Amino acid sequence: MPREKVVKIWDEREVVYPPKRWHYLWEKREKALKIMERLEQFDPQLYGSVARGDVRRDSDIDIFIPYKVPSYLIELALEGIVSRRKIVMATPWHL
Predict the structure, then answer these.
(1) For a pLDDT cut of 70, what percent of the chain falls above it?
(2) Is the entire prediction scored with pTM above 0.90?
């Protein structure tokens, strides 16, 4: 018998974050803004914890580019402001 979820997906609940958590959110969104400004020609979209606002100190910044772009153009655009990066490119399932 499956377990019943404690919180339903659309249940409302109040979440209170401590000041430190708000500081992390501010830092991550400032960094995301700088990155997205560099990528603006590619129509970047922020998603994940930074977009939702539920960040932690170790949260990453997830940015989605909705169409195929050669990775070297992304590398050039981000040169000097990003120390680590992971580029994930969607591939067809049949490959």
Answers:
(1) 82
(2) no
Give the model confidence (pLDDT) of 8-45 as tens digits: 677 777 888 899 999 999 999 999 999 999 999 999 99
Taking the C-alpha atoms of residue 38 and residue 25, their distance in angstroms, rounded to an integer, is: 20
Q: Which element (helix H / strand E) includes 63?
A: strand 62-64
Residue 63: count other Cβ atoms within 10 Å of its Cβ. 20
CB neighbour class for 18 (10 Å; exposed up to 12, middle 13-18, buried from 19) = exposed
Contact 78, 39 (CB under 8 A): yes
* Residue 45: strand, helix, or coil: strand
